[in-house]
TrEMBL record, chain A:
Species whose genome carries this gene: Asanoa hainanensis
Keywords attached to this entry: Cell membrane, Membrane, Transmembrane, Transmembrane helix, Transport
Annotated CDD domains: TM_PBP2
Listed InterPro entries: ABC_transporter_permease, MetI-like, MetI-like_sf
One Pfam family matching this protein: BPD_transp_1
PROSITE patterns per record: ABC_TM1
Protein's name in the database: Alpha-glucoside transport system permease protein
Family to which the UniProt record says this protein belongs: Belongs to the binding-protein-dependent transport system permease family.
One annotated Gene Ontology cellular component of this protein: plasma membrane
GO biological process, one term: transmembrane transport
SUPFAM superfamilies: MetI-like
TrEMBL record, chain B:
The family this protein is said to belong to: Belongs to the binding-protein-dependent transport system permease family.
Key word Membrane present: yes
Organism domain of life: Bacteria
Organism: Asanoa hainanensis
Example GO biological process: transmembrane transport
Organism ancestry: Bacteria, Bacillati, Actinomycetota, Actinomycetes, Micromonosporales
SUPFAM superfamilies: MetI-like (SSF161098)
One GO CC term, this protein: plasma membrane
Region (Disordered): 1-23
Protein name from the UniProt record: Alpha-glucoside transport system permease protein
Listed transmembrane segments: 34-54, 99-123, 135-163, 183-205, 226-251, 292-311
Alphabetically ordered keywords of this record: Cell membrane, Membrane, Transmembrane, Transmembrane helix, Transport
A Pfam family the protein falls into: BPD_transp_1
Amino acid sequence: MEFEDFAPKLSMLLYGVIAFVVIIGGLLLLLDVVPNYFARRREAALVAASVSTTDGPAPPPSRRLRKPGEGLLGLAFLIPALLLLLIGLVVPAIRTIILSLSNGDSTEFVGLRNYGWIFQENDIIRVLTNTLGWVVLVPLLATGVGLLYAVMVDRARFEAVAKSLIFLPMAISFVGAGIIWKFVYAYRGDGDQIGLLNWLWTTLGGEPQQFLNNAPWNTFLLIVVMVWIQAGFAMVILSAAIKAIPSDIVEAARLDGVTPWQMFWRVTLPSIRPSLIVVVVTITIATLKVFDIVRTMTNGNFDTNVVALEMYNQAFRYQENGQGSALAVFLFILVIPIVIFQIRNLRRQREV
Amino acid sequence: MTTTTPVLAGEATAEQPPRTAAGRVRKRLNSRTATTVSIVIALLWTVPTFGLLLSSFRPEDEIKTTGWWTFFTNPQLTFENYNEVLFGRSSSSGQLAQYFVNSIVITIPSVLFPIALASLAAYALSWIKFRGRDWVYIGIFALQIVPLQMALVPLLSFFSRGVSLGGVTLMPAWDLADEQKFIQVWFAHTCFALPFAIFLLHNFVSQLPNELMEAARVDGAGHSKIFRSIVLPLITPALASLAIFQFLWVWNDLLVALIFAGGTRDTAPLTVRLAELAGTRGSEWQRLTSGAFVSIVVPLIVFLSLQRYFVRGLLTGSVKG
């Protein structure tokens, strides 16, 4: 492991940073030079205007004379980002839709056959039901735990530390989390168990289990990992929302003598409803795209496959571009109703 | 946690700081239950990581035969796992030092580019008047919901085969080999990050006071000057939170790296290597535990030291969206 091994990489990094400085610096320089040209023209126009209308009040120059440069300048600020979005997202997304209507190596138009395939193969139907399980359970459990915890530690003595503990998994990669939990679920046929779960299980008198091999519980155990990661996100957002509830509402409810239970259901929950929806929607969308956890822990074996992993396998392992693209489009279609729900909620919120 | 404040503190006088509804609920619910539940949750959320961390310091045969909790009766610590997984020479060892450098090389430009481009775009979308501005913003905003899976196949073929329309090559293949593949990873990460980055920064930039901009304009500052000397300093907290988001996303990403970086030690980041180790050497726990921790430690440090910015970004990013 000598320096030579790293040298080409580090020089690539250097090139990257130089490219960054040149591109962004050049852009800013350009943005300085071009408007200056317009400014000079404007000045000239101003001078001319003030000469001709010396006695009347001068028209507000900034409003009338900035117009010609503005649109162009806006474009110059925007173009790099727009170009990248176009090349990296918009055009590929459209291409993917076209590919999804073609066969495996994209040479022949096959209509909706790839979409029919999604709903016919037994394996893929399994993938769909698994994904459904994920999408129902993860938002529910993660939001539930997050909310419970936010309420429980609110104003407790070690609130900041307690929150950090739950929040920490958000910094861990899905791959890292997958390994952490694979270790928890680890199985040994004989001798001491090294996995926490099997240790608890055998201590309670059970036979050691290969937890990750037994459907349908293995899918549930993978879901636990996602809940573990997302609960912190839910907790932070909901905790902030809880703290933002106006105290007069709380006081009024208290004067009316509500029980804590009623307080929670009639005051806390309705007040944080918008944040709750945001949390559920965000986690749902993230869950739909879950890929790393399943790939790391079971690689989709033992009936644990999900749509995003199957999409990857079809497109990049089996080179079935048509079926892979159809699955990608299917993912997109699944996201749309969730987003519409979210937008309608936001709109209703604004009307109130 | 049960004895935090005197029970009647909030009810005594109006001067007391108002309690939140949740605090009241927690208080009135049997406080002991609340404490127990929160401790159980906190344990569930920390013990797995702790077990991994502790195991990574245990000798190989200890890890493989006994649970990490036996450490407390039979403490043995070693750095051998880290030495082996980072610098081992055999192909079965992690060789993670290589991949660690790859992760760094991938991450730095993939954070810098989207932030710079997004802040420019966010400024233009907020403070430069041009026709169709709102529609451009709505379009970018909407792009956030496109799963990146939608872009993978065509973007990869864009890099490897170029663009041709009806037999005419509009753009040749990039033909990147070995280390040059970093470029396509940067490119992909930058593209995928932009919609959210622009959205987040737009939230901040558009809320800067109008008077400030007017005053600068009256003083003769152009857009470029305003952007550099007024907007950028004022949105530094937003830039910081975006940088943390993007850093965590890129460092922890597996999908984009798998497709655009390839699997070799020339370019693949830690996550790709770890996933590979977990697949092919799933019972080599001495490598997996230490390897996982190597990949976790950097984001953990960043996260813990900059948590404030991260949370602020989360709150603006999602509560408004």
